[in-house]
Predict the structure.
Amino acid sequence: MSPVKTSSGGEAGLTALAVSLRGVTKTYDNGVMALGPIDLAVRKGEFISLLGPSGCGKSTALRLIAGLSAPSSGTVRVARHRGEVQPGHGIGFVFQEPTLMPWTSVRENVRLPLKLARVSKPEARARVDEALASVGLADFADAFPRELSGGMKMRVSLARALVTDPDILLMDEPFAALDEITRFRLNNDLLALWRGLGKTIIFVTHSVFESVYLSQRVVVMTARPGRIQADIRIETVEPRGEEFRTSAAYSDYCRKVSAALAPSYSGQSTL
Amino acid sequence: MNAQATVTTRPTGAQRAMRFLLPVIVFAAGLAAWELVVRIKDIPPYVLPAPSVIFLTLIKDWAVLSQSLATTLATTLEGFVAASIGGIALALLFNQSKWVEYSLFPYAVVLQVTPVIAIAPLLLIYLEQQTAVVVCAFIVAFFPVLSNTTLGLNSVDRNLAGLFQLYGASPPQTLRLLKLPAALPYILGGLRIAGGLSLIGAVVAEIAAGTAGAGSGLAYRIAESGYRLNIPRMFAALLLLSLAGIVIYGMLALISHLVLRRWHESALGKES
């Protein structure tokens, strides 16, 4: 069913790949070519951003990596840290919308992936509590989604993605709908989580500033069909914090990334 | 969402009381006018009975009428339960297989658009009378359940469906944990319509059966009283039918509210 080939690869250390796309294209049923061909390699533990204008196929790329849709050509490889894991469990996915089940509590929403995998109740409970604590929502386990603010819903969504302890976290413009203050705070929390948990994160965004602030690598994509325009490494003093956001290095990188992004927009008359 | 809430003016306590009181006052005034006209003009009860006469008939004939009420309610309940189970089950079947849907849906529509009053006499010939009456109630009530449930099952959030796929959910898990809860508000809406319709179906069938000379439901009492020019009893039976309809609707609306109040927009107050 899944087009994603799992290789429970060797423990080759830091240079081992978590995700690799080779010659991947995606053409929709209506003939529109959405993506590619693209080649992309993501190392284990890396934080990379896919940046591009809307409709450049960033989300399509993410769905291909998640196994939610199949590539029209090329290969998608996803490596897992451990040998045996059930399909899908090496990957956590955070959608643009919180995508919570409105009919049940925060706790049940976060428990869903474990429930689907038939994890025993006591074990699930401990892991749900842990995941909720990691996003700072331990006190809201019994609330219903509608009782939460937009930022809190997004945290629940993040907790749900973390509860299976995935090796790879795919995030599809998760903070795009939030106000700037909430977004900055979630950016910092996400960086802290990434440092603490050592997961591979592939983060899709259309914000230059967000991509530079968060990631070790910014992959700039062109519009229709989505191709890789530039691959820019962001190097700075870790851990990053608010002082990076106001530093000269940060604005230099933003300028560089914006310049790489400019050709993608030049063809569009809407600007 | 918050901005909207502040704009909406909340009804004050007095306004809420008026919303409840005004219809009651109108009803009482209507009854009083009716009583007055009948008394002043000295209209005989077989032309138009006064409300007081209808009320007395209700008490006097309670033994007969209550038994008929029980019969009609039992028929309605059986038709409603059959329609609910049948409608939901068929919708689930349609959801599992497009081919089944394409094959059967036109017949569901045919059953819906053919007036039940025209089907009832045929059913009464082929089926035992009590069965035929329940089948009539079922036919009228099942379509809204079917179409609403189908709509609900097709309204599942696409990203949530993707999430279930990502975590390798089995079809039964997807049905139980995603599709049915997502469809629940729609199903409850369908049931609310079906409750009233199954009463209508039961009444229609009883009237059709009554002309064939048997039965003891409320509708039969109305027909029978009509032949005997017992107009007060016709009104009393009609009153009971109307009350039964209101109670059925009220109960289903209450159940719907209790089930959905924690999460669904339709059941939330304006304050959120």
